[in-house]
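[step 3/7] inverse_fold.run input=structure_tokens len=249
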């Protein structure tokens, strides 16, 4: 995009980024280098940081020296700045910062907004109602804290209960082969399909055909933009309450 300043490409672009960061009326700052706003914060100019949550791995984070050092450098050190605010990119961040005594009365909701598609909702739901068997979709990386193994546990239970269903698992990752083995070991090939990597715009095609979307991530899921997309696609959603966007959406 022509409005993106690529500070990593040249000294000229880097200097331009620094100048913008210091002189702009408002700056919204994520997890990039603090060099961009050090001078700005010294001048106590209107600045917004954004973050999902602090204690995604539990309150024991306070005993992690490296993480606490980062918290100090980015947040605690500037706690007296009147014009430094926090945009919490999930439902749990505000409470996490409250526990640390930071950003009192200076926290706002912040979220992720992927493309919203306009549908003939009545027709979309009618198409889903024709789906037989029940179509369940799961989209995530195959990694430990996304809990793909829960979908295998679910499939085994649904088979045991004699229900007709199809689960489609979209994505790839270090647990992919393990999940594939579990499907084979439990004779679930007729019930669970692994698609591997799918282009993001094609993922919506699966959601539009699905009856149910399941998000099995836990606390480490800062927001979970697939939740926005599944709800926009008129899926019934089952999600862990610890997913960052779940209480908001």
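[step 3/7] decode complete -> sequence:
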């Amino acid at each position: 995009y022509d409005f993106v300043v690529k500070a990593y490409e040249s000294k000229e672009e880097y200097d331009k980024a620094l100048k913008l960061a210091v002189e702009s009326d408002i700056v919204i700052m994520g997890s990039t280098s603090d060099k961009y706003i050090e001078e700005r914060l010294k001048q106590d100019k209107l600045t917004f940081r954004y973050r999902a949550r602090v204690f995604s791995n539990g309150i024991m984070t306070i005993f992690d020296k490296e993480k606490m050092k980062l918290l100090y450098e980015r947040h605690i050190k500037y706690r007296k700045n009147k014009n430094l605010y926090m945009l919490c990119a999930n439902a749990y961040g505000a409470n996490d910062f409250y526990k640390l005594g930071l950003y009192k009365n200076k926290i706002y909701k912040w979220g992720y907004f992927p493309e919203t598609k306009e549908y003939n909702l009545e027709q979309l739901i009618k198409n889903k109602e024709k789906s037989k068997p029940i179509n369940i979709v799961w989209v995530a990386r195959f990694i430990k804290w996304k809990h793909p193994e829960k979908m295998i546990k679910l499939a085994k239970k649904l088979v045991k209960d004699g229900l007709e269903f199809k689960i489609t698992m979209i994505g790839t990752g270090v647990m992919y082969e393990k999940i594939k083995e579990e499907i084979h070991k439990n004779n679930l090939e007729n019930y669970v399909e692994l698609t591997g990597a799918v282009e993001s715009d094609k993922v919506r095609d699966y959601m539009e055909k699905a009856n149910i979307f399941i998000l099995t991530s836990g606390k480490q899921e800062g927001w979970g933009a697939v939740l926005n997309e599944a709800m926009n696609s008129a899926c019934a959603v089952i999600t862990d309450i610890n997913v960052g966007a779940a209480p908001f959406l």
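[step 4/7] annotate
DSSP finds nine helices and nine strands in the chain.
The chain has a mean pLDDT of 93.
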